Amino acid sequence: MSDALVDRYDLFVFDLDGVVYVGSEAVPGAVPALRRLRERGAGVAYATNNASRRAPAVAELISGLGAPADADEVITAAQATARVLAARLEAGSRVLIVGADALADEVTDVGLVAVRSADEKPVAVVQGYGPEVGWKQLAEGCVAVLGGALWIATNGDRTLPSPRGPLPGNGALVAALATAVGRQPDLVVGKPEPALFEDAARLRGAQRPIVVGDRLDTDIEGANRAGMDSLLVLTGVTRPEDLRDVPPEHRPTFVAPDLGGLFDDSAVPFEEFGKSE
C-alpha cells in the first residue's frame, strides 16, 4: 500500500473556510486536489460551521470554483442545529433567528416558525454567523434570552478567515450577546462537537474517515472527539508557530502545508512536524 494519505482512508471530510476557499476565492491547490480525489472515486464530504449558506448554495460555490460537489455531500451546522431544535420543541414553535436567512430556512424546514422579533414571544433563540448580523439582531436576541428563551448557537468560532485576514466569527457575536445577557448559550451544536463528522461517516458507511481542517479548536478537536484521524492544513487560521505546546485535544494526526499533502510526502505526523520546528 502507498504511504500517501489518499490511500489510507475511505472518506475525506473537509472543512471549507480556510481549507477549500477563503471568502469567494479558492485556496491555492484545493481545486486540483478535490478533482484528483473525485477521479479516484474517493469518498468526500464537506462539514462547515458557517451557517450563512444552505447545502445547495455551498455545493454551488464549490462547483463554481472548479471542484465537483453535490448538495448531499455538504453538512452544515445550521442543518444540525435545526434538527436539535426540532427534537426539543413542539412543531410550530416560534424561534428567533440571529443570523442569515439560510439559518431561518433550515429552521422552517423542520416544522418550526422562524421569527425576527422578540415581541413574537419565541421560545428559543438560534444564533449563527451572517454578515448582516449587527446591533438590531443582537438586541432582539437579548430581549428574548432575558425573557427566558432557550439559546442555541450553531458554533463558537471566534474568527473566520478572509483575504484580509481573520474577521469576527459567530463566536465573537455570541460573546457580545453573552456579555449583554450575563450567561453563555444553553447549547453550542457545531464543531468541535463531533456530530457533523459522525453524521458524514454514518451517511457514507465509512470505516476509515479522516477530517481535514485548518482550526485546532474546532476541526481537530472535533475529529479527536469523534475518534477520527485528522489532517491540519496551514492554509487558513492556524500558523506553524501555533503548533508549539498544543494540548492533546488539539493535536492533529498529520500536518501539511495544503491539500497536496493528501497525495505526497508533505504531510507529516504531528510529532515529526513539532521536531522539525
Automatic annotation (TrEMBL):
Names of required cofactors: Mg(2+)
| A family per Pfam | Hydrolase_6
Sites binding substrate sit at K191
Keyword annotations from UniProtKB, A to Z = Magnesium, Metal-binding
For this UniProt entry, what's an example GO CC term? cytoplasm
Q: Sorted alphabetically, which Gene3D superfamilies does this protein's record hold?
A: HAD superfamily/HAD-like
**Gene Ontology MF, one:** phosphatase activity
Please give the PANTHER family that the UniProt record associates with this protein.
4-NITROPHENYLPHOSPHATASE-RELATED (PTHR19288), D-GLYCEROL 3-PHOSPHATE PHOSPHATASE (PTHR19288:SF95)
Q: Which NCBIfam families does UniProt cross-reference here?
A: HAD-SF-IIA (TIGR01460)
Q: What is this protein called?
A: Acid sugar phosphatase
Q: Which organism is it from?
A: Virgisporangium aliadipatigenens
Q: What is the lineage of its organism?
A: Bacteria, Bacillati, Actinomycetota, Actinomycetes, Micromonosporales
